[in-house]
Structure formats: structure tokens, C-alpha cells
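Quick one, C-alpha cells below:
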């Protein structure tokens, strides 16, 4: 508890803690600790039921304005909610993308009709969302998107492929960044469409990860359809709105993500106590640094949220992906070092991994997806700090072929 909390914040903390203690019992007692990196399929139906139970009591979308179904919680109260959720060892959320990414985007940029249609099912956890950004040739270089959409009499027709689409197999809708202006390149000519997943024109193919599970998916759009009104902003506004969504993902939504991070760190510390690794001064120093890193993430998320108000996050959100991706990867390596030699052996054949092995393997991807560390550093340097662009190596020019003659036979210096 923060000693500087106001009486209202302390009362809010007590309300959250009391509700979680009471309701994470009985029918939901077994849900504690479920889900997490490499365990995204674990008890999905039970976690969905838990989140709908939360919704019925008004504990989803707590930071949204009350007019859109939220509680209008302050920045400090949103931090409190996420802290208490972690302390209660509550299950990993299933509605993260809808609640923390798409919802705030619709609130900031959507029409009244879109808010009325899409926000209530997110609050009630009746519709789940996935994010259609990356493509085989447009990962960290998102501006290279090639998925196309054409506006016809019956609505938008979408063709193309997305990849690394988290939880697409469970989702009802996808927000898709696609190219709607033929002949456009890079950041121009992109639009932000809301596309239903349950249709014949959408094919979801799971990608098996190092953990043996399939959180990520390929998604193929082949003559897929969505209504003409399911575009956020105007045609061509896609890049601006996509970047705003990333701002929510890398700022406000980081608090929800830190629920799992806090639980994992607490588990690694307890593991170090059980194995005796806590007595190793080097490991103890790394555990301390991990705790400090998580606090820095929390404070940066609070700074981002404080600047959001009714608009999109500011430039401070750009550093959060770089920070949490590196932190989580390092935590996976730390867990393996705490385990020692035992971390090299699976629990059972053929590939029965324990939680720490899954954490280590899954977190290898954290510095790659959603913008690799290298790309993030360039973005921060060039677009946030205004530093000169990184030098680009010019491709060598190939001379045009010439007919043999006296001039072409001369020796060239």
C-alpha cells in the first residue's frame, strides 16, 4: 500500500481486496493462478466464466468513463485494482485486448454508433477481440502492411494475411490495419477496420511455439467481409489510429500485463528461497534488480496514464515495450539460473514443461513481437527524441550494359 494514498483510495483498495477474497473461493477457488505465458490455453472456459462474473459485479473496464460502462476509476485506483488482482493470484485475463486496446481506441476515435455497438459487449465480456497488425513482411516494419480492403456496395472486402495474432482462435472480432488506397505505400493509404472472425472468409491456423502451445496464429482473409461503417476514423487514418492503439497497449494496458509479471517474480523469489539460491549474492542482486525493474514499469505506466485523460498516450509510452520485453526475457533467464541443472530436464516425456521452463521459452519472444528491441530503439531515438535518422547503406548501382566498342574496352581507373 502506498502511504500517500488518499482516504478514498484506501477505501477503494479495501473494496477490491474484499471482493476478490470473497469471490475467489467456492466455485472459483480453483481459478487462482491459472493462465500466463505459455499457458494461454489453460482452463480458458473457466477463466472466461470468471471474467464474466467480474463483469456482472462491475469489475471490468474499471478505468473507462462511467458513460461507457466503466467505473471512471482514477489513475491511482487503476493501479490499486491491478496490484490487488495480482496479490490475490487471480487468473490471467482473457479480455485484455478488447478492454485495454480496442475499447480505449473506440472511445477516443470511434463514432457514437460504434461506441454503442462495440463497447457494451467488451464490458460484459461477451465478445473477445484480437489484433490484426503483423504480416509475414510487416512485423516491426508495420508500415509495410499489404492486406487489402476494397469498399463495395455490400461493405468492405478484405484479402490478405496476418501473423502472430494472439488468441485469434478464441476471438469474435479483429481490428485489422489494411491498405484501402490502391497504389499507396508505407504509412499512407491505411485504414483501421473492425472485422468479424466467425465467417467463411477467415481462416485461423495456430502456430506451435517453443512451449508446445499455440497462443499465436496465422489469419488468412479471403474475400472476408465487414460492414461499411466498421471503419474507425476516416479511410487513410489507419496509421494514426494504429499508433494510438499501440500507445494504449504500451501504457495503460501494461498495468494489466504487470499482474502476471508480479505473480511470476514472486514465484521466482519463492523458488530461490526453496532451492537455497537466495543465498547466492549474485542471484540475490539480480532478484533485487528484477523487483526494481517492475517498479519502474509500474511508475512509467502511471506516468503514461496521467497523460492520457481523454486523448491518446504521449511519447513516454514508446519506451514501455522496450522496457517490459527486456525485463521479462531477463526474468525467464533468472528463473533458469535459480533452478540450476534441474531446469534442463523436462518433468516428463515427451515435453512436459514446468512453469519456469515455459516462462523461459515464452519470454524469448518478448523482445521480438510487437516491435523488436532494435526497431523500438530507433523509434525512440528518431521519433520521440528527434535525433538524426540512422544512416542507411545505399545499394550499389549496377551499370547499364553497353555494347563493346573502343571506349568500353579502355581500362578504367
Amino acid at each position: 500500500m502506498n502511504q500517500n494514498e488518499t482516504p478514498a483510495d484506501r477505501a477503494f483498495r479495501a473494496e477490491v481486496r474484499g471482493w476478490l477474497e470473497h469471490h475467489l473461493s467456492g466455485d472459483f477457488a480453483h481459478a487462482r493462478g491459472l493462465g500466463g505465458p505459455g499457458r494461454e490455453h489453460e482452463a480458458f472456459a473457466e477463466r472466461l466464466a470468471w471474467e464474466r462474473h467480474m463483469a456482472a459485479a462491475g469489475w471490468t473496464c474499471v478505468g473507462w468513463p462511467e458513460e461507457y460502462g466503466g467505473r471512471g476509476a482514477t489513475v491511482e485506483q487503476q493501479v490499486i485494482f491491478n496490484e490487488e488482482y495480482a496479490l490475490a493470484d487471480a487468473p490471467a485475463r482473457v479480455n485484455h485486448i478488447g478492454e485495454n486496446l480496442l475499447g480505449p481506441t473506440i472511445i477516443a476515435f470511434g463514432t457514437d454508433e460504434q461506441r454503442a455497438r462495440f463497447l457494451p459487449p467488451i464490458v460484459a465480456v461477451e465478445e473477445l477481440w484480437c489484433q490484426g497488425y503483423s504480416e509475414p513482411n510487416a512485423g516491426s516494419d508495420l508500415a509495410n502492411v499489404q492486406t487489402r480492403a476494397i469498399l463495395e456496395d455490400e461493405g468492405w472486402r478484405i484479402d490478405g494475411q496476418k501473423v502472430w495474432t494472439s488468441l485469434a482462435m478464441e476471438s469474435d472480432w479483429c481490428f485489422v490495419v489494411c491498405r484501402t488506397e490502391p497504389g499507396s505505400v508505407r504509412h499512407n493509404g491505411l485504414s483501421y477496420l473492425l472485422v468479424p472472425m466467425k465467417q467463411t472468409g477467415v481462416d485461423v491456423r495456430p502456430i506451435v511455439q517453443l512451449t508446445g502451445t499455440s497462443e499465436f496464429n496465422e489469419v488468412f482473409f479471403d474475400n472476408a467481409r465487414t460492414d461499411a461503417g466498421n471503419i474507425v476514423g476516416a479511410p487513410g487514418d489507419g496509421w494514426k489510429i494504429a499508433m494510438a492503439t499501440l500507445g494504449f497497449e504500451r501504457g495503460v494496458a501494461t498495468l494489466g500485463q504487470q499482474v502476471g509479471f508480479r505473480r511470476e517474480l514472486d514465484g521466482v523469489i519463492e523458488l530461490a528461497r526453496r532451492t537455497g539460491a537466495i543465498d547466492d549474492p549474485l542471484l540475490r542482486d539480480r532478484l533485487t534488480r528484477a523487483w526494481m525493474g517492475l517498479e519502474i514499469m509500474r511508475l512509467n505506466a502511471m506516468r503514461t496514464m496521467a497523460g492520457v485523460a481523454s486523448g491518446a498516450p504521449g511519447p513516454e509510452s514508446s519506451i514501455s515495450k522496450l522496457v517490459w520485453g527486456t525485463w521479462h526475457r531477463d526474468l525467464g533467464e533468472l528463473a533458469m539460473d535459480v533452478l540450476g541443472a534441474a531446469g534442463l530436464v523436462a518433468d516428463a516425456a515427451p515435453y512436459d514443461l514446468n512453469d519456469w521452463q515455459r516462462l523461459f521459452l515464452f519470454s524469448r519472444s518478448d523482445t521480438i513481437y510487437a516491435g523488436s528491441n532494435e526497431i523500438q530503439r530507433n523509434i525512440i531515438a528518431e521519433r520521440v527524441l528527434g535525433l538524426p535518422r540512422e544512416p542507411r547503406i545505399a545499394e550499389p548501382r549496377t551499370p547499364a550494359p553497353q555494347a563493346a566498342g573502343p571506349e568500353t574496352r579502355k581500362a578504367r581507373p
